[in-house]
Amino acid sequence: MSLTGDDGRKDTATKSSPNTSTRSSQGASPTGPVLPYGEVVGLDEPLETGDCVQAVWSGTPFKSAPNLGVVDCADDWPDGQVVAVDTATDLADAKAQGAKRCANLSRALVDALPDAAGYAVVPTEEGFGAAGSGTACLVLGRHAAIGGEVGRFRDLGTDLWVGQMSVGDCWVYQQLDDGYKAPLTDCSKAHTDQVIGTVQAPAEMTYKKGTDNATKLCGNKFESTWAPDQERLVYGWVADEDDWKKGFNKIVCTVSLTDNKKSSGKIPPPGAV
């Protein structure tokens, strides 16, 4: 999988294949532990805030139950992360309100990411106690794996993949022989790029055409407001071809200063006082 920009300074980088080792269980023997979320989900331990997971959907993604495995956030290539755990008063409360509360807890982060959706893992009746009365609130890649930690769980210096880039993020572009790095930085520190939003590629657009026109598409949407003069430029970033074909064809847009200068301080949204 690669990161791709389309303007000459921004090239490609690849990721390694995920390690599939997990702490999950596919089922429980009659004398085995109670599974918090049932046999389909398969975990024999409750999910915790910050856990990264890989998900195999039993049916339609986000409409069916996923089989989950907890993986290393940095060394593996996770589909997403547990961003909160909602504790219910009882099983009826978990079933009636757990998913709704999870949606509220994860909404801001889901909206800030380019290709994400929320999903609530509700405990079963048998597993309610083993789950600690908790519904796990996940943020997962909608079409492709997010590939690492998200939001507040990321450390400064984390090399961001496009799927991890949230609106408001600042990072420093670093050219490599075979691509580039995009380490997350505090916006008050020197940085090259600030994420300002996304743009959906037109239907049926090919990956090559998308990479060739990513900056133009971002410019059409954001340039007049975020870069109205000669001091700033808007750039576009896309995922790799495999993920594009899976449906991750939103383009992440950033604003930068011209002449590869670095900014210090977040550029305020247009119209902000």
Ordered list of secondary-structure elements with their pairings:
Blueprint: E1 2-5, E2 12-14, E3 52-57, E4 66-71, E5 80-87, H1 91-112, E6 116-121, E7 134-141, E8 170-171, E9 174-176, E10 179-181, E11 184-185, E12 190-191, E13 193-200, H2 207-226, E14 232-238, H3 241-246, E15 250-257, E16 263-264
Antiparallel strand pairs: 1-2, 1-14, 3-4, 3-5, 5-7, 6-7, 8-11, 8-13, 9-10, 12-16, 13-15, 14-15
Could you write a compact summary of the structure shown?
With 273 residues, this protein is α+β, with helices and mostly antiparallel strands. Helices cover 18% and strands 29% of the residues. β1 (2-5) and β2 (12-14) form a beta hairpin.
Number of helices: 3
Radius of gyration over alpha carbons?
20 Å
Instruction: Tell me the strand percentage band.
Output: 25-35%
What distance separates the N and C termini?
A: 40 Å
What would you call the structural class? alpha+beta
Q: Helical content, roughly? A: 10-25%
**Spans with pLDDT under 50 lasting ≥5 residues?**
1-27
Name the helix and strand elements from N-terminus to C-terminus, one letter apiece: EEEEEHEEEEEEEEHEHEE
Biggest sheet statistics: 7 strands, antiparallel
Shape: elongated
What is the number of E strands? 16
- What's the rounded overall pLDDT mean? 89
Q: Going across the major beta sheet, what is the strand order?
A: 2-1-14-15-13-8-11
Walkthrough of the structure:
This protein is 18% helix and 29% strand. It has 273 residues and is of the alpha+beta class. Strands 2-1-14-15-13-8-11 form a 7-stranded antiparallel sheet. The protein has a 5-stranded antiparallel sheet with strand order 4-3-5-7-6, with helices on one face. A hairpin with a 6-residue loop joins β1 and β2 (12-14). The radius of gyration is 20 Å and the shape is elongated.
